[in-house]
TrEMBL record:
Keyword Disulfide bond part of the UniProt annotation: no
Gene3D superfamilies, alphabetized: YaeB-like
Keyword list, A-Z: Methyltransferase, S-adenosyl-L-methionine, Transferase
PROSITE patterns: TSAA_2
Recorded family membership: Belongs to the tRNA methyltransferase O family.
Protein name: Methyltransferase
The species this protein was found in: Paenibacillus graminis
Length: 158
């Protein structure tokens, strides 16, 4: 196994007025030409699960109703994984290019979560027209837009 070094480029900020990605000052120039993109892919660190136990979990009892009883961690979106890296596609609400702040739609990240990278969402590279999913999750929303009004409490075992 090789060791890799990863550095945060900013943090997720959640407060009453919304969700924001605040970049470190030296990364603000990387926002140039982001105008016009409606969505970004945000790679972030499950920092609250960066410990020996969480990184050693390879299988788990199913968190989803109707799915197999035991699931490999790569078949879940659990924060417990060998490398606590997360990926979320989010809509850009507004960008302050001078201050390096991107307001985004909801992200499943806690306040002060480290952001590793941002990539523009481009349908030609990121969109799958007809994705295949197991039968147990085939009734889930087909887009992030639909997910906002979906009753996720009916899906999870907790």
């Amino acid at each position: 196994m090789s060791n890799l070094e990863v550095h945060s480029i900013g943090t997720v900020r959640n407060n009453q007025s919304g969700t924001y990605i605040t970049l470190e000052k030296n990364f603000i120039p990387a926002l140039q030409a982001l105008e016009g993109f409606s969505h970004i892919n945000v790679l972030w660190w499950f920092s609250d699960y960066d410990d020996e136990h969480s990184r050693s979990v390879l299988q788990t009892e199913s968190p989803y109703k109707g799915s197999p009883e035991v699931m490999g961690i790569f078949a879940t979106r659990s924060p417990m994984r060998p490398n606590p890296i997360a990926l979320t596609a989010v809509e850009i609400i507004q960008t302050d290019f001078e201050k390096g702040i991107i307001q985004v739609s909801f992200m499943d990240a806690y306040d002060n979560t480290p952001v590793l990278d941002i990539k523009p969402y481009t349908p030609s590279l990121d969109r799958v027209e007809t994705p295949g999913v197991p039968a147990w999750c085939s009734s889930w929303p087909k887009s992030t837009e639909e997910s906002g009004s979906f009753n996720w409490a009916e899906v999870f075992n907790f």
